[in-house]
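From the pipeline queue, job 12 of 40. The input is one protein chain; the requested action is below.

Action: predict structure.
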Amino acid sequence: MANEHRRARRPGDDGLPPAPEAPADGLRPAPRAGADATWRGWRAAAEQALYGPDGFYTRPGGPGPAGHFRTSVHASPLYAGAVAALLCRVDAALGRPGELALVDVGAGRGELLGGVLAALPEDVAARTRPYAVERAARPEGLDPRIAWLADLPAPGSLTGLLFANEWLDNVPVDVVETDADGVPRRVEVRADGTERLGAPVDGPDAQWLARWWPRAAPDAADPGLRAEIGRPRDAAWARAVGALRTGLAVAVDYAHDRADRPPFGTLTGFRAGREVRPVPDGSCDVTAHVALDACAGPAAERLTQRAALHALGVTGRRPPLSLATTDPAGYLRALGAAGAAAELTDPAGLGGFGWLLEPVGGAACAGLLAADDAG
């Protein structure tokens, strides 16, 4: 299934199965004696669960994201081809620089970079310097051209395209819930997933809620509402954009807007292709939708994935039936590609993801994707 979570759910009323104690597939470690019973906010708990020494993403020998959920990168090589086409547009807009950076933030096992390098024209590939930013160890057998980084490149150090596919949703955030009096309080959680309400939200986090998630802001009238405070994601995205001296930064994620925030939040978990309860013990992905409108800078452009991929030539149109007579094998290949393109652009699925585009260093890379497809 795609890594997409679109339903607004009240905690405890979502119908998700409980985390199994010891599944036969071995993907979830057996419970450890004396498991950590410390109460933490969700941001600190998810940071440890995802990126700690035995974290979901950093555990040595783990299968990587592809072993647990299916993103656009894993759905079809057409996605890497579209990113390659975008990189070529950035290259042309920048006057074909001698060195062209391609930065993949949250690179998983490097699948996207490998696909893009294979899809690039030879002259562009020769000038492209690919960087994978990923906190897990470098996978064996990775293309030696790819530089593997544990953190973002230095500010203002690169010229080219920075691409972050389903990265921001895994930047941990705190969760709040309004109490019986409508006061938003921080949700604290233990490693086994047990929650309780903590202190009221105040300071910059309260200001962020008031601006970007007003339904759950201080003075909210309704009890039981939940929200995810996106300030860490805003800062993470600004730092990623800052790695470019000039070029284009793109974030792709499942997202929501200020006018339509889900009333009960979007925090959830994934394991082995199934949506599960979010338990911060390292056994599953812990993820939440992204407030991309809050992340966006003043020059940002926003599109749906459907519109972005259509602008890059991924349309899902079926081949003409006449091709089946003149070139049966070609017809079958084209039909398969159309099916893959349809999945990537389905407005009810991957096509509904948000694309946030930030030109850097001037307007050269503005408007590279024509927004002529509203769907």
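Job complete. The longest strand covers residues 244-253.
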